[in-house]
Backbone:
């Protein structure tokens, strides 16, 4: 080891202590350690390499910084769960909207808007897979018109025809673009025969026409008997020719998905129809 006298002369303005401090600071400017050797005499003996080695030994690897807290703009799961419970309470007992009055419609609409505001905009170009599956309709504001067509003309319930509306589902396949409305119906027949249970499947194809808007095009209606008549084969109802189809029933429609997560979906139709679905 060279002695201090053999080391090259430093500029007059820089002392030994300054050179030592500079060596330590240059090792890791962001984390400087004060280094004290066991024998101060070794500084005077010219063994400056001990200072460098000691500085390296003292430098520790800093732990990675903790992840940033969740953004305040992200909805809290507890709040979403509370708002969904509020919406379910608002539509419960309304028979999917068939028993809703004007006050019920306003209450359900206000509860849905709270979730829509907190959930933010839906982007189906990213979350299309969330549509996949079979969804159960628990509320439609259009059913308050007391027809099975909602805001569009449809068969009346328990008026001209002895029809009782059962469960209503939507079955969506995002790969094949199939969009089926499945309606369970009970058709009254003369006593003493039991009511006929039917399942009508209204097949559609769908396409995205916006980040959250869907357009569906009607293809066919298939009816299958269930219950005591389940052995009967399904049959297809002939489609009304387009020339004879009323303007209000063109066979297609549009709606916007205003809220979507793993188990709840809210949509608003092209005729201001509010629908609420839960995963089946």
Residues:
């Amino acid at each position: 080891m060279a002695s201090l006298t053999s080391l090259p002369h430093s500029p007059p303005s820089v002392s030994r202590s300054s050179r030592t401090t500079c060596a330590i600071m240059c090792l890791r400017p962001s984390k400087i350690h004060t280094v004290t050797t066991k024998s101060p005499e070794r500084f005077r003996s010219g063994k400056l390499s001990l200072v460098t080695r000691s500085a390296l030994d003292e430098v520790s690897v800093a732990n990675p910084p903790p992840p940033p807290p969740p953004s305040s703009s992200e909805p809290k799961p507890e709040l979403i769960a509370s708002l969904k419970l509020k919406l379910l309470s608002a539509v419960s007992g309304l028979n999917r909207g068939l028993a809703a009055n004007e006050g019920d419609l306003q209450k359900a609409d206000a509860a849905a808007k709270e979730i829509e505001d907190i959930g933010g905009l839906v982007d189906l170009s990213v979350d299309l897979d969330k549509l996949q599956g079979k969804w159960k309709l628990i509320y439609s504001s259009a059913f308050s018109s007391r027809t099975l067509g909602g805001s569009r003309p449809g068969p009346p319930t328990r008026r001209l025809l002895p029809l009782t509306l059962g469960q209503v589902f939507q079955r969506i396949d995002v790969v094949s673009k199939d969009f089926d409305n499945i309606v369970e119906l009970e058709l009254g027949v003369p006593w003493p025969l039991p009511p006929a249970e039917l399942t009508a499947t209204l097949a559609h194809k769908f396409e995205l026409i916006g980040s959250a808007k869907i357009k569906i095009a009607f293809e066919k209606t298939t009816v299958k008997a269930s219950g005591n008549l389940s052995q009967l084969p399904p049959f297809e109802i002939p489609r009304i020719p387009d020339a004879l189809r009323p303007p209000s029933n063109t066979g297609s429609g549009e709606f916007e998905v205003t809220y979507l997560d793993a188990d709840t979906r809210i949509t608003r139709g092209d005729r201001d129809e509010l629908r609420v679905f839960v995963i089946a």
Summary: Helices lie at 16-27, 41-44, 49-58, 77-91, 102-119, 124-127. Residues 77-279 form a domain with the Lipocalin fold (CATH 2.40.128.280). The longest strand covers residues 213-226.
